[in-house]
Write a structure and sequence with these properties.
- With about 260 residues, this protein is α+β, with helices and mostly antiparallel strands.
- It has two domains: about 1-35, no CATH class; about 70-260, Rossmann fold, CATH 3.40.50.
- The chain contains six helices and 17 strands.
- It has helices at about 5-10, 15-35, 55-60, 70-80, 155-165, 225-235; strands spanning about 35-40, 45-50, 60-65, 90-95, 110, 120-125, 125, 140-145, 165-175, 185-190, 190-195, 195-200, 205, 215, 220, 235-240, 255-260.
- The chain has a six-stranded mixed beta sheet. Strands 1-2-3 form a three-stranded antiparallel beta sheet. A two-stranded antiparallel sheet has the order 6-7.
- β13 (about 205) and β14 form a beta hairpin.
- The structure holds zinc ion.
- Zinc ion (ZN) binds near residues 41, 43, 48, 65 and 66.
Length: about 260
């Protein structure tokens, strides 16, 4: 006797096969929907679906529309939330690897570091600036952005101070860099011996938008990072941590640091 669709499917093999296929399709659809999270992306400023394309959410949890990654969305979210009107502030970005800031900023400038070129000149249309010794006047910018740059700077104690020099009083250096919870004291990974860089640990590289595409990791920052950065720069470093999958904010090393220059 036939009581249900599955009884019917068993009794009629052709129908059974198509029900099985429909079942597989349903399961596949359910998997796709489970892995995707609907929400708002601060990089492309629209409703989207977030999806992880790998095991490392920090680099793999993408916006389905603009392919931004979590730390980029978090930095834009901090700007949108805590710096309303930032789009009209004079903003400098060092070593940008995307256009999420430049597409909204009306007073945007950027620079990259080309070791062999003269500071302040242009290389292939891009301004050359060394974060440790910039050619900008004091009190030039409202906001200064570095995204995953500070782990590649040789002397961050110098660069942190230099950025505050070119910021206006009350301005902010807003940045990302990996802070390792497992490391108690921040440590340099390299040493300059007679003008040459020597590795103290097995060298590690990240992607670089210029040069040979590789950038040596020079510092591992640990739990003392904010204290250190405040002391280095003379500013006040505040850390933002946000976990919210509906904003696409998930993964390791998502901190956004805001280092303020004193108002006067
Ligand atoms: Zn997006």
């Amino acid at each position: 006797m036939i009581h249900s669709l599955s009884d019917l499917a068993r009794a009629t093999p052709v129908l059974g096969a198509s029900l099985k296929r429909a079942d597989e399709d349903r399961r596949e659809l359910a998997r796709l929907l489970r892995d995707k999270k609907a929400g708002y992306c601060h990089c492309c400023r629209q409703e989207t679906l977030f999806e992880s394309i790998g095991d490392w959410d920090r680099d793999d949890y993408l916006c389905g529309l603009c392919f931004s990654i979590p730390r980029q969305r978090h930095l834009q979210m901090i700007l949108d939330t805590y710096f309303p009107g930032w789009e009209n502030a004079s903003l400098h970005e060092s070593s940008p690897s995307n256009d999420f800031l430049s597409r909204y900023s009306s007073a945007y400038s950027d620079s990259q570091f080309f070791e062999d070129a003269a500071p302040g000149t242009r290389v292939g249309g891009v301004r050359n600036e060394n974060l440790e010794k910039m050619t900008f006047d004091d009190n030039t910018f409202d906001l200064f952005i570095t995204q995953d740059v500070f782990e590649h700077v040789l002397n961050p104690q110098v660069a942190a101070k230099e950025i505050l020099r070119v910021l206006k009083p009350g301005g902010a250096h807003i940045f990302t860099t990996p802070k390792h919870r497992t490391i108690e004291m921040s440590r340099t990974r390299v040493e300059r011996v007679e003008g040459k860089i020597e590795d103290l640990f097995v060298p590690e590289f990240h992607g670089n938008p210029v040069g040979d595409g590789r950038s040596l990791v020079t510092w591992d920052y640990g739990r003392d990072f904010e204290e250190l950065f405040t002391a280095w720069s003379g500013g006040t470093t505040v850390t933002y941590v946000t976990r919210d999958r509906s904003l696409g904010l998930e993964g390791e090393f998502l901190e956004v640091f805001v280092n303020r220059k004193p108002s006067r």
